[in-house]
Amino acid sequence: MPKPPKPDSPITQHLAYLLAQANREINRQLEARLSKEGVPVEQWRILKVLSDGSGRSMSELADAVLLNHATLTRIVDRMVSNGVVYRVQDREDRRKVLMFCSDRGTALARRLNELALNQEAHIIENYGNKSTAELKRLLESLIDAGRVSAAVPDAARSD
Length: 159
Description:
- The protein has a single domain, classed as Arc Repressor Mutant, subunit A (Orthogonal Bundle).
- The protein is mostly helical.
- The protein has helices spanning 15-34, 41-50, 58-65, 69-81, 103-127, 129-151; strands spanning 56-57, 85-89, 97-101.
- It contains six helices and three strands.
């Protein structure tokens, strides 16, 4: 079983650093592909989530696209101005606003999704299908374990 890095280990030995570096590289590559449509990664995520047509509150959308509320609001305001998403007041809770993709946004989401799929195919081609599937599984497991440990108070943990 791997041990945590020693206190004097270089930063490149820390899992948090390696995950951040991998995220940065994947996003850099994806950003290069999405730039053909003039759309940053964050807007692709928003369009991808909203393209299912079910509508999301800003809180749900922020959680789904991994953005804080202030950043999401700025991006969504721009996207509304560009006519790719729109706001509708929630019928059940008039204090809430739901976000949807416009027809233009849905068409853009389809084109962007193709570019994102090409990026994933590129990763699979270079890393291998089996290794990529295993990496996804491990990352999902790490994320799930983090959620569980965040939900359990420190005093209740047995490790």
